[in-house]
Automatic annotation (TrEMBL):
Domain of life: Bacteria
InterPro entries recorded: Cro/C1-type_HTH, Lambda_DNA-bd_dom_sf
Protein name: Helix-turn-helix domain-containing protein
Keywords: DNA-binding
Gene3D superfamilies: lambda repressor-like DNA-binding domains
Residue ranges of domain HTH cro/C1-type in the record: 24-58
Length: 107
């Protein structure tokens, strides 16, 4: 069973992926990367990425996290993610709270 700290609701996922859908093309354009190049980075075909960007294919949570990781890693788009509230800050906060509860390993 997933502890409450790590549970991500379907509504949260839907809202997050929806915002990213609406901004994928502008995020990609901001760094001048083609659909084919971005598809290669995230590990899907160009056709699959095109379908995601145009909304004809549902974005999985794994693809969402992969795209967020990529765009957050690029200087030109990382601030835009935060401004659009695409970056899953709730998850970062939960993860960091969990780290405070972990005891260091005895080496």
């Amino acid at each position: 069973m997933v502890r409450d700290k790590w549970f991500i609701s379907a509504d949260y996922k839907t809202a997050s992926t929806s915002i990213l859908y609406d901004n994928l093309a502008s995020l990609r354009a901001r760094i001048g990367i083609t659909q084919e190049e971005l598809a290669n980075v995230i590990g899907v075909s160009r056709q699959t990425y095109y379908a995601i960007e145009t909304g004809t294919r549902k974005m999985t949570w794994v693809i969402y996290l992969t795209l967020v990781f990529f765009f957050n890693s690029v200087e030109e788009t990382s601030e835009m993610l935060k401004e659009l509230r695409i970056f899953p800050i709730d998850l970062v906060v939960r993860f960091n709270e969990q780290l405070e509860d972990v005891e260091p390993l005895d080496v």
